[in-house]
Design brief:
The protein is of the alpha+beta class and 262 residues long. The chain is 21% helix and 29% strand. The protein has 2 domains: 14-107, Pseudouridine synthase I, catalytic domain, N-terminal subdomain (Alpha-Beta Plaits), CATH 3.30.70; 119-255, Alpha-Beta Plaits (2-Layer Sandwich). The chain has 5 helices and 10 strands. Strands 1, 2, 3, 4, 5, 6, 7, 8, 9 and 10 form a 10-stranded mixed beta sheet that branches. Strand 8 (179-190) and strand 9 (193-200) form a beta hairpin. The longest helix is centred in the first third of the chain and has 13 residues, at 39-51. It is elongated and about 80 Å long. It starts with 13 loop residues before the first strand and ends in a 7-residue tail after the last strand.
């Protein structure tokens, strides 16, 4: 008796990673929302328009409403066989003007934009001095008074290392482990702008914006280095600085193991 020929196996799904840049001004954040438009939804709609598929999209970080990205990473599995580079160009052509695909590549099936990340870098832009900067109003936070930059730099160095960041995150995050490893905190002078750039193995909800708010308070003489040091031992949120507005925050880059993306 002759065996029936075996049915060919269906093609395996492909895992695609994208590097995205976007202006978050008119979006409710990365995630899909019932009451607003998220970047994730815009990307999903564009993928569906080109491929007919609506994959689950994983972002490297859930940026809040108004937060921008220079190097957000997203990954998703797809059955469509279009080469990754061609898909990236096609997506870039149909996405809104404030969202761009900088890179598209096929990655291993176990790659995950969020869980495979090894470090992330955020940058917060402060505008200092009396005069406004109308062209940067949606990308910076204006502080008119003077700041003690050297005191801010001394305080910034205290954040480097592994600490309990309970005092520098939203209350909802404090139910879990709030320890993170901060690789670097730098203050960069750029004319009228002061940029605070932070790199860590991970960030808690509102952590960057609260750290920047605390450094601003140090620069204004409202907090001192000793208080920052105590708070990094597991202090209370009410004793740290304010949460600065989302509009000054940019996700700059995400780093992965060798061979990853970002």
């Amino acid at each position: 008796m002759t065996a029936a020929p075996e049915e060919p196996l269906p093609p395996a799904p492909r895992n695609i990673a994208l590097v995205l840049e976007y202006d978050g001004s008119r979006y409710c954040g990365w995630e899909k929302q019932k009451n607003g438009l998220g970047i994730e939804q815009v990307l999903e709609d564009a993928i569906a328009r080109i491929t007919g598929e609506r994959p689950v999209i994983n972002g490297s970080g859930r940026t809040d409403a108004g937060v921008h990205a220079l190097g957000q990473v997203a990954s998703f599995t797809l059955m469509h066989r279009m080469p990754a580079a061609d898909l990236g160009r096609a997506l870039d052509a149909v996405l809104p003007e404030d969202v761009a695909v900088l890179e598209a590549r096929e990655v291993g099936l176990f790659f995950h934009a969020r869980f495979s990340a090894r470090s992330k870098t955020y940058r917060y832009t402060l505008l200092t001095g009396r005069a406004k900067a109308p062209l940067m109003r949606a990308r910076s936070h204006h502080l008119r008074g003077p700041l003690d930059r050297e005191a801010m730099r001394r305080a910034a160095r205290l954040f480097v290392g592994r600490h309990d960041f309970s005092a520098f995150c939203h209350e909802a995050e404090r139910i879990g482990d709030c320890r993170r490893t901060m690789h670097a905190v730098e203050l960069i002078e750029d004319g009228r702008f002061l940029q605070v750039e932070l790199s860590a193995d991970g960030f808690l909800y509102n952590m960057v914006r609260i750290i920047v708010g605390s450094l601003v308070y140090v620069g204004q003489g409202k907090l001192d280095e000793a208080t920052i040091a105590r708070l990094l031992e597991g202090g209370e949120r009410k004793f740290s600085g304010p949460t600065v507005p989302a509009r000054g925050l940019h996700l700059v880059r995400v780093l992965y193991e060798v061979g990853g993306t970002g």
